[in-house]
Amino acid sequence: SGPTTRALRGRAITFRADPFLDDPAHALVHEDDALILVEGGRISQFGPFEALRHTIPEGTPITRYADSILSAGFVDTHVHYPQLPMIAAYGEQLLEWLERYTFPTEAKFADPSHARAVARRFLRELLRAGTTTAAVYCTVHPQSVEAFFDESARLNTRMVAGKVLMDRNAPDNLRDTAQGGYDESLALIDRWHGRGRQLYAVTPRFAATSTEEQLDLAGSLLRQRDGLFMQTHLAENTAEIEWIRQLFPNRRSYLDVYAHAGLVGPRSVLGHAVHVAEDDFCTCHHTGSALAHCPTSNLFLGSGSFRLFDAVDARRPVRVGLGTDIGAGTSLSQLGSLNEAYKVAQATGRRLHPAQAFWLATAGGARSLYLDDRIGTLAVGMEADLCVLDPKATPLLAQRTETCETIEDLLFVLMMLGDDRAVRATYVAGELVHDRDDPKARG
Ligand code: GUN
Ligand code: ZN
Prior knowledge:
Elements (H helix, E strand, L loop, with lengths): L5 E10 L8 H4 E12 L2 E7 H4 L9 E11 L1 E7 L13 H14 L4 H17 L2 E7 L4 H14 L2 E5 L1 E2 L12 H15 L5 E7 L7 H11 L6 E6 L3 H10 L6 H7 L7 E5 L5 H10 L2 E4 L1 H6 L7 H4 L7 E4 L11 H14 L6 H8 L1 H6 L17 E4 L5 H7 L5 H11 L5 E6 L2 E5 L8
Bound molecules: guanine (GUN) and zinc ion.
The site of guanine has 11 residues, from α3.
């Protein structure tokens, strides 16, 4: 069947500005009774229902979401799909955690049928959590990328993903070579980058597992085709940082290792960035690269506190998105990430306003990925990736949101108490792909 024309009616939120740079109350757009008209997979009308009802083509079904909040779908800027089976692995910090749990788990993705099964389960979970776009690490195996894009293309989700590059300091069965990794990546790029809604990210895991030759070739890959992404890890853990210092004694900083290889620029997404200096924030600002704030992961692995408000400082704002970082993260829900992001801000003496929080999870994430002209807000012409949030999803939410008097208050309670149960429905390019109360409805 072709793309459906449909009308959604309900309370809606979106953004007209960046709430870290503008007054959050002004940046947040709130429509009490909105129409979202979807035609050809895009939003063709958005605004007050009564003013726009005449634009609804005759015979178009109208889905009414009473007591719910319509929003752009969530954007997850850093997540590892192959690590879903090892979420909640006990007891280690980053480097030991990688050795003990992560590498053995990722080795299983040599098997394409395993990769396909996990990719399918992962995407299903993302949609259940209201997340419609993610920047995703696969494993070193090209078949893990193939499986992921195949499943994403089937759902028509806009995904950014790539093959992990890793040619040293990893087990035999998880290493590629500098040239082999380059060739495999280029073949995947030509197969998937820009095919439908799929986008490719050159993905050196982190500086410790790539030789300088591999990092340089990753930089060269980025120059081979237009619009490619780059994703890697940066300054997550103090033992990791010390290791990088020893491996790259001639570089000024961890970030400089990547910059030297030509990996830092627009559409580069650096995960974690917990322990970075002012100089690094300046480099990110000037190069247009983004940082992925992964609060549940940073708390789970004891990595440290991301300095969100320093990163977005108006004098040299850095693009920041929100990452669940599964399997080091502990929730696939961006509401869960916001819950912890609020507490991390508190621990650093700062207050994350609910408008800022929901911006990070939607429009800010889209801007970090340079996709804000297509996703992340509700506006005419945007791709119709949506989620529907239910403030009464649980008895506690129902009781607590009863007394919320403002939209800000309601959003705050949702982000503190909500999770996948609070996602009533998810739409991808205008098609219903998740309906909490009708599990058979699938895209
Ligand atoms: N650093 C290098 N690889 C990883 C990974 O898989 N997860 C996290 N959290 N950090 C990393
Ligand atoms: Zn990660």
